[in-house]
Amino acid sequence: MRSLMLKLLTTLITLSSLSLFAADANADLDTKVTTFLQKAIIPNENYTFDKVVILKKEAMKEMPDWMVYFVRIDLNLVKQEGKKLSVNDMVFTNGTILSKDFSNLNNGRSVKGSYSLDMDASAYNKEHLLAGNLNAPHKIVVFSDPSCPFCMDFVPEVLADVQNHPETFALFYYHFPLNIHPASPTLVKAMIFAEEKGDHEIVKKVYKEFFDIKETDEKAILDIFNKALNKKFHT
């Protein structure tokens, strides 16, 4: 139960499981980390990117050649003028490769799960409540990309846990498309449009489908979305 709690209470920012830095090889490591994170975030109708702040960094005990970076990503909330949302999380890097997590081969546990970060209270917005009780003692905020393989596994698992313990957990969901997944911006736009049309279960439906779209053409992506979810959206 303790490991489950640690996993559920870990804030999620969805990066690829293992990603090569695209930053200048001559840049210092702090700059490479912040530049990579900035490029990984795609603004949408809910937010625009502001900045990345490094809160703390330290060598990993498990792998001394790797560093763990505690970061804060500041976002401007589009629908709430003048308001910002700060998202705290951590990433791991050896200076060449950046990873969002590691698993211990002996027990299968997440290395990231042994850390905890605080979340800005403004993230606990009723409009983004996906499951559970708004006033539950344990709140989980998920920033997810519907095309991210890790997220497609993680979100349904967390959702099921929260639905089984609604008085214990509250799950808040935010769209977080990344440019490393070309179909994501179109999928997210379709999901937002579906929500506006009254389909408040669309997030659950999308993750149940487990989309693996290789297309980059918006019309082709929408056709796949429409067929899977019985919609008639068009560009």
TrEMBL record:
Cleavable signal peptide: 1-22
Superkingdom of origin organism: Bacteria
Annotated keywords: Signal
Domain Thioredoxin-like fold: 126-217
SUPFAM superfamilies named among the record's database cross-references: Thioredoxin-like (SSF52833)
InterPro entries recorded: Thioredoxin-like_fold, Thioredoxin-like_sf
CDD domains assigned to the protein according to its UniProt record, in alphabetical order: DsbA_family (cd02972)
Pfam families per record: Thioredoxin_4 (PF13462)
Protein name: Thioredoxin-like fold domain-containing protein
Organism the protein comes from: Sulfurospirillum diekertiae
